[in-house]
User: Which sequence fits this backbone?
């Protein structure tokens, strides 16, 4: 029996992207596509939201794919080894994605977003939908889960910025290709960096196709209590943690989201610099 | 009671009120008339036998005073600090008719603090009833309910979404009013009573309220999740960096220790000049936290006058002493940002009080051509909260039109076996009112489970001579050997 929040497996996709499979039998049963968790790596750590990339009720585990960008995620990359445990892991949080009866769906994942869109692609497929997967990376070396994703898709399009795999270009070109071949797309789900989701929304808007994005703004509690994750959707202010994280892409104010994601940029830079200084000191 | 000097304390997080010495407590206790009609007991939402505990202080039977209080309230060190005594026990004190009322809250705190430092705990032997009770939320309502159900012999589990128990006591109320060590010590007492705390557990999403009663096998459930969701005004500029809710400011600072960034990872980026909108206790906390994080000036912006301010008298007084600048009769209309999307000022209009509104308070009315700009780089909203939606989204609990859980006069909800109390039923109120609701629900839950207090095999530790009963150290909790 694994300890609470014990990391039972880990896979490094590149020098910045890593997968953690964590023991939490109860959450593995409860989790649904589109939901997220909040993680605290140690007792002085911050609470960071991460969208579930997978969950397996038989293994009693949930899976996260993390990109080492700031202090916390780099520290996790260094410290989260198999056999260690997270300080806190709470979830599943947020409203599950609505996996309706859409017949033809495009599931778009950009970079790290490939991981959280996977459970949705799988759910559409299990519901009998025709799933077109579009995934994008900067280059082939950063690509992960190609085969896993392909196995739940009827069509599969890979885009890379440098053309080292699939189409040379960004995911919106993949979406356009799929739209050119299918006039009957019911729904598009897009998860990735905010700028990518913004352009996905603009790509589908002229076609009037329902498009859903998953937002991951700065959060503290993740239970609707702090209001830090508020986002503009249409003319309303919504809390991503309890009203989302999924929202209608054509109503989301992405510029507002991107501005709010930079709220703590100065502190984030300080924390990262200090941590890297400490790392160098401990090596030197 | 001795307090830290306003100028010194405004730059530290140590407690403002230092607490009574024994001499001060004895002197204050002597002022109680022990009057026969005991209005203070009726003024207390949890009905502490106030004259009894004060009489025991005068007899220097301090352990006895503690035991008297904990019959009704397991958390005296907390309530002595945060109750609005002026509108409860002290507000109706007979002495107060002619003189300053007896400082009941300070005496309660004195006894509660002594119990922590002396490691007193009323740990009785309780015969298990065989019933399992789930409590959702570890704030004041949940803690009070858990204590009473544990004392009735139930196996109690408290579920908390955060990584530490305590709810609003932990994330909301700052250390200079209620130190975290005091909360932890009081939570330890609940653990000593046999209560289990399961943190990192979001009820509604990890399992539902209905599942608690079915597959998880609980016989009764109490919901004390608090109100929670912060409200904003909907004026332009609210997404700017530097605009946040008091909940976010306080949670980052108190629970997540952002005040010790970068020793702790959670950032806050405190403002140099801060405006807090609102004049309740949470607003006072947000202002005084901002001061301690180095902001100057700190403004309070409130659309009514000091007389209508909902904060406790002591909090308002402390805020004034510490140099908060109050803008009464002032209402924000827009938050202005600089080219980086950060707050640079708040534009307000002046108000006057018109006719009374439905709450009976005089309605503020804008004065024409009265707009002013106040230069600030942080704006904090402390204008109240609305119902947290999670349990409504995930259960069949009946809700009112504003999203609060509907409970009848006995705090029973629309699901049989589920009670609810505190802010998630009433909207934002006080710690002690939430505790009162937790205790009331517990009494209803006991009668639902067929537990009569008179049937509970309950052997208070204190009845043993010097901690012994039948020659056995009562701390071993093994009276059962003798009684069986």
Assistant:
């Amino acid at each position: 029996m694994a300890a609470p929040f014990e990391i039972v497996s880990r896979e490094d996709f590149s020098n910045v992207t890593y997968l953690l499979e964590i023991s939490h039998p109860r959450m593995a049963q409860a989790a649904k596509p589109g939901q997220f968790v909040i993680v605290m790596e140690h007792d002085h750590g911050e609470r960071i939201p991460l969208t579930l990339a997978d969950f397996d009720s038989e293994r009693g585990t949930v899976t996260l794919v993390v990109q080492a960008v700031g202090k916390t995620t780099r520290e996790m990359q260094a410290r989260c080894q198999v056999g260690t445990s997270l300080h806190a892991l709470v979830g599943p949080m947020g409203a599950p994605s609505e996996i309706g009866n859409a017949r033809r769906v495009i599931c778009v994942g950009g970079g790290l977003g490939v991981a959280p869109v996977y459970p949705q692609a799988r759910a559409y497929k299990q519901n009998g939908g025709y799933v077109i997967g579009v995934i994008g990376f900067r280059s082939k070396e950063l690509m992960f889960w190609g085969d896993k994703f392909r196995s739940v898709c009827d069509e599969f399009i890979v885009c890379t910025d440098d053309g080292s795999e699939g189409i040379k270009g960004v995911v919106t070109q993949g979406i356009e290709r799929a739209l050119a071949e299918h006039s009957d797309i019911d729904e598009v789900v897009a998860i990735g960096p905010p700028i990518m989701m913004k352009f996905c929304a603009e790509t589908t808007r002229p076609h009037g196709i329902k498009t859903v994005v998953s937002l991951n703004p700065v959060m503290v509690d993740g239970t609707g209590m702090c209001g830090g994750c508020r986002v503009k959707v249409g003319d309303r202010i919504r809390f991503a943690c309890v009203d989302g994280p999924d929202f209608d892409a054509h109503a989301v104010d992405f510029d507002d989201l991107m501005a709010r994601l930079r709220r703590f940029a100065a502190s984030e830079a300080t924390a990262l610099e200090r941590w890297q200084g400490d790392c160098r000191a401990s090596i030197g | 009671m001795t307090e830290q000097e306003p100028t010194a304390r405004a730059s530290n997080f140590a407690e403002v009120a230092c607490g009574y010495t024994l001499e001060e407590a004895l002197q204050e206790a002597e002022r109680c008339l022990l009057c026969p009609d005991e209005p203070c007991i009726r003024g207390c939402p949890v009905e502490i036998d106030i004259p009894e505990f004060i009489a025991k202080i005068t007899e220097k039977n301090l352990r006895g005073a503690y035991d008297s209080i904990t019959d009704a309230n397991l958390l005296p060190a907390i309530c002595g600090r945060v109750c609005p005594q002026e509108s409860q026990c002290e507000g109706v004190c007979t002495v107060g008719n002619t003189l300053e009322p007896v400082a009941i809250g300070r005496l309660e705190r004195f006894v509660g603090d002594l119990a922590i430092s002396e490691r007193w705990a009323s740990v009785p032997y309780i015969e298990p009833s065989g019933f399992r009770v789930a409590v959702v939320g570890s704030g004041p309502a949940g803690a009070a309910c858990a204590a009473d159900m544990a004392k009735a012999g139930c196996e109690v589990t408290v579920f908390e979404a955060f990584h530490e128990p305590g709810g609003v006591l932990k994330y909301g109320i700052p250390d200079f009013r209620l130190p975290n060590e005091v909360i932890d010590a009081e939570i330890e007492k609940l653990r000593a009573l046999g209560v289990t705390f399961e943190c990192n557990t979001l009820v509604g999403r990890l399992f539902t309220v209905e599942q608690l009663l079915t597959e998880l096998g609980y016989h009764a459930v109490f919901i004390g999740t608090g109100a929670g969701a912060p409200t904003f005004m909907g004026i332009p500029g609210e997404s700017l960096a530097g605009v946040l809710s008091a909940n976010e400011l306080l949670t980052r600072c108190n629970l997540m220790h952002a005040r010790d960034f970068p020793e702790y990872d959670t950032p806050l980026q405190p403002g140099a000049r801060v405006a807090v909108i609102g004049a309740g206790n949470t607003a006072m906390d947000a202002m005084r936290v901002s001061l301690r994080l180095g902001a100057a000036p700190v403004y309070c912006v409130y659309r009514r006058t000091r007389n209508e301010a909902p904060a406790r008298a002591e909090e308002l007084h402390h805020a004034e002493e510490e140099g908060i600048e109050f803008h009464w009769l002032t209402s924000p209309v827009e938050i202005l940002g600089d080219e980086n999307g950060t707050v640079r000022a708040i534009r307000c209009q002046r108000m006057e009080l018109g006719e009374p509104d439905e709450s009976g308070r005089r309605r503020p009315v804008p004065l024409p051509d009265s707009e002013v700009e106040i230069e600030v780089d942080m704006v904090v909203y402390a204008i109240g909260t609305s119902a947290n939606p999670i349990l409504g989204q995930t259960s069949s609990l009946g809700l009112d039109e504003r999203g609060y859980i509907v409970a009848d006069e006995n705090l029973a909800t629309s699901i049989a076996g589920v009670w609810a109390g505190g802010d998630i039923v009433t909207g934002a109120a006080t710690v002690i009112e939430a505790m009162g609701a937790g205790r009331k629900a517990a009494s209803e839950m006991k009668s639902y489970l067929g537990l009569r207090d008179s049937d509970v095999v309950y052997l208070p530790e204190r009845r043993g001579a010097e901690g012994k009963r039948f020659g056995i150290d009562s701390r071993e909790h093994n009276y059962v050997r003798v009684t069986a």
